[in-house]
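Working notes for the structural subgroup meeting. M.R. asked for a predicted model of this chain before we commit to crystallization trials. I am recording the input and output together here so anyone reviewing the notebook later can reproduce the run.

Input as submitted:
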Amino acid sequence: MNFWDQFEKGFTILAPMEGVTDIAFRQVIAKAARPEIFYTEFTNVNSYSSEKGRHNALERFRYEPEEQPIVAQIWGTRPEMIAETAQALKELGFKAIDLNMGCPDRHVVATGGGSGLIRTPELAKEGIRAAKTAGLPVSVKTRLGYTRVDEWRGWLTNILEEKPAALTVHLRTKKEMSKVAAHSELVPEILALKNEISPETKLIINGDIKNRQDGQKYIEQGADGIMIGRGVFANPYCFEKEPREHTQAELFNLLSYHLDLYEKYKLSPYDPLKHFYKIYINNFPGASEIRARFMETKSIPEARELLKEVQNATQ
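Returned structure, recorded in token form:
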């Protein structure tokens, strides 16, 4: 069975985010409110194909069996390396592969990867074909265009002609980054185009979706699933099927779990963990001051001691 056929319409996905959706954070979200599907952080195929970078690539592909179903996301511009990495992912136990053709990071785009592929549509097609050689379902995550919104029809047509198993569309261009509202008005037209060219492809919508309920409007329009990225920073419980209010104590416990996992998997360095503190420490009197103290910590044991102090003070 195709990986994507196991999910009922309306499925949810935690978006792959660089420096965010590692093995620890995915398990934090699973504990808070699990989506139907996880993605790994996106990984450069050049890394896996080089002896020097392979260890780092394998670390990024690390997952626990209970995280299945999980999709490995990769990026790159060299079809032969995409094919090599795709085969390795199959051997690592992944059941599906996603190609990142939407990342707007200037360093990625400078190599021609991510959303840079929007400017080289034939190379994008070659990448999809190369990934398919491993025999796994191949999906694509991309944006509406590079500079202009009206690029969407030609660009998405180019991708859909390769019959990807699924297509995730972030409803902005590379140039827009996340500085404007998502172009949600285009979803019906995108769906019609998908149904015309590749009706078997699952359509997933991404961009400005705050929670499962917020994304329901796209499902009602005909999309198959939704993907939430930055929304987890505002609410780690955003995938709840029946949303409810959560206490600060629950968020502190979730933070404690995150610290434990970061230590368990020997993730390093420590400083990237600080980006997550705003998820757990906000919207209560004195939160900004407490968060500032966490930002000054230099290790997990130090953060854990501060957390205990804060928990005792707020009980």
